[in-house]
Write a structure and sequence with these properties.
Helices cover 15% and strands 56% of the residues. It is mainly β.
């Protein structure tokens, strides 16, 4: 019996490591995600937060207005929660090259760092969330997957001290006319 328990304890970390996604696995997948193209203009999103036990804790909608100046994507996210609470986050996301991005927002501690390969973006950051009457510092690890010109899915793991406390699932949708009209290279110049 002790031998079986020891065997399982040795295998558990290995099994967990096998399940972790790697951004390199998405190299060459389509459709190609160009973050600044997708979020330029108006975008709508719907999301939920589930605690670590799978209980639905919050539902929300987000209206996003984005603009790209050739180097920085500015995204204003206006949140409306099912209980009537509202919030705003303004991201300034810099394109670094080689599929890498760095972002800042007022409630983000330091910077968010991310990488795009093919249809996927992974990105992580520490953020302060308002919970009841207090502030809670947590870590978000997001995975975004472009489905087509209109739809993108985001799944985020929320952790505190390395322990998952919940997940956020978010669906983004571009208006059809915008999704088809946003050029990836206006003026024929490639962004650095």
């Amino acid at each position: 019996m002790i031998r079986r328990i020891a065997y399982v304890l040795i295998l558990l970390p290995l099994l967990g490591a096998c399940q972790a996604m790697n951004i390199d696995d998405f190299e060459g997948t389509t459709p190609q995600l160009v973050l600044e193209d997708y979020f330029a203009g108006e975008t709508k999103a719907w999301g939920i937060f589930e605690d670590r036990f799978g209980n639905l804790r919050r539902e929300f909608k987000v209206d996003i207005a984005g603009s790209w100046d050739g180097r920085v994507l500015t995204m204003t996210e206006d949140f409306v929660y099912a209980d009537g609470e509202t919030d705003r986050r303004v991201w300034r996301i810099e394109k670094l090259g080689d599929g890498r991005y760095r972002g800042r927002a007022d409630d983000v501690i330091g910077t968010a760092e991310g990488t795009v390969k093919g249809k996927a973006l992974t990105w992580s950051y520490d953020i302060v969330l308002k919970v009841g009457g207090s502030d809670l510092k947590v870590r978000f690890t997001d995975w975004l997957f472009l489905q087509d010109d209109e739809v993108m899915i985001n799944r985020a793991s929320v952790t505190k001290f390395g322990i998952e406390i919940g997940t956020v699932t978010l669906f983004f949708r571009k208006p059809v006319t915008q999704a088809l009209a946003v050029p990836s290279d206006p003026g024929g110049k490639q962004a650095a």
